[in-house]
Design goal:
globular, 15 helices, MFS transporter, mainly alpha, 396 residues, single chain
Length: 396
């Protein structure tokens, strides 16, 4: 039978298509925002930190609200509230107000995450892994589209704010659509054991331990976010400063990165659980990212940068979503709360990394930022190996 929650999933994926735009919209418009807000590039990076602050402020509460009141109210409210950020930033008269708008975007992100992932897991059961990975596909498509949109506005001497206003209009329409769409009964679904990508979780061979695999998955929430966030934030700057590319061409590097992400998540949606285990992906992908980042640093030429950008996108896509789904396998109850813990770690990366990388780019140069990303990839590999060990113990 056709899944009754296809309409819901469609609306959720549209939300994350727009979020993919938002994830790179500040860095892609960095040169315009520095002039408008009378600041420098590092300060625009701090706006991304403000989004992380907003996420962190809301995540604990959002997860509990999701478990108590359901997934739908939070998602619909977030869809409408994103308009404040998208309309506000291009019209902000000063940096302080822009910072407030960025915090509001973070609040919206938390609410959307706390509702979306549990809703997809509850609505798609054994295909939950593929359903959540498609969130990343939606994000990737949005991130592919927005640089070309911005390049079009640049080439036609149009106001950069249109790249904010168009997603705002779509969020408005999608919020109305979701408000009229059916969602799973979260209270009924909470009693069911989630099954990810065909993996039965009817019983444990050994009881899961939160302070081992739980904490490891939470940290993976941090490292997996850092891996792609550093690239999204600083890749255009790397193209301009290290490779001497013009502004429009450097911004388009994000599209090659996003194409790699899209290819990856579509592939994962097909093969995950059938031909490859989620835990294997969590180990192999950071390995690919490690070598791709090394290539980006070593070979300073446009062709190598395009290939590396594609491979980095390919190897960082879906890890966070897989970590969320595996977390619900280990810890079945209160999925809104447990997924929020992973999202809190991701929020910390949005706060800490722009601050750290902004300072590093000033004092040590743009290459140092990508060396940090290499170290993060190594940590991700080690954590994933440990989670794989515990997975075999728990689900023998």
């Amino acid at each position: 039978m056709k899944n009754p929650y296809i309409r819901m999933a469609t609306g959720l994926y549209i939300n994350y298509f727009l979020l993919g735009m938002i994830n790179v919209i500040l860095s892609s418009n960095m040169s315009f925002l520095t002039v408008q807000l009378n600041t420098d590039k590092a300060a625009i990076g701090y706006l991304v930190s403000a989004i992380g602050i907003g996420k962190l402020l809301a995540l604990g509460v959002a997860g509990k609200m999701s478990d108590k009141y359901g997934r739908k109210p939070l998602i619909v409210i977030a869809s409408f509230a994103y308009l404040i950020f998208l309309i506000g930033i291009p019209l902000a008269p000063n940096y302080t107000l822009a910072f407030v708008f960025a915090i509001i975007a973070g609040l919206c992100n938390s609410m959307m995450d706390a509702g979306t992932y549990p809703a997809l897991i509850e609505g798609f059961g054994k295909k939950a892994g593929s359903a959540t990975v498609l969130v990343k596909a939606s994000i990737s498509i949005g991130a592919i589209v927005i640089p070309f949109m911005i390049a079009f506005f640049i080439n036609h001497d149009m106001f950069y704010g249109y790249s904010f206003f168009i997603p705002a209009g779509i969020y408005l329409l999608n919020g109305i659509f979701l408000s009229m769409t059916a969602f799973p009964n979260h209270k009924a679904e909470e009693q069911k054991a989630p099954a990810e990508a065909g993996q039965s979780t009817d019983s444990f061979h050994n009881e899961p331990k939160f302070w081992q695999e739980g904490l490891s998955l939470i940290i993976i929430g941090f490292t997996s976010t850092v891996l792609f966030m550093i690239v999204q934030l600083w890749l255009p700057t790397f193209g301009q400063e290290a490779l001497g590319m013009d502004k429009a061409s450097a911004i388009k590097l994000l599209s090659y990165y996003s194409i790699g992400s899209l290819v990856s998540v579509i592939l994962l949606a097909v093969v995950l659980g059938r031909f490859i285990k989620p835990i294997t992906v969590m180990i192999v992908y950071p390995l690919i990212a490690l070598f791709s980042l090394l290539a980006l640093i070593v070979w300073h030429n446009p062709v190598a940068t395009l290939i590396s950008s594609f491979l980095i996108g390919l190897s960082t896509a879906g890890i966070f979503q897989i970590a969320l789904t595996v977390m619900t396998e280990f810890f079945r109850k209160n999925k809104g709360t447990t997924t929020s813990l992973v999202n809190i770690a991701a929020s910390l990366s949005f706060i800490l990394m722009p601050l750290a990388t902004g300072s590093m780019s000033k004092s040590l140069g743009i290459t140092s930022v990508f060396i940090l990303d290499i170290a993060i990839a190594v940590v991700s590999i080690l954590l994933a190996v440990f989670v794989a060990y515990r997975y075999k113990k728990v689900f023998h």
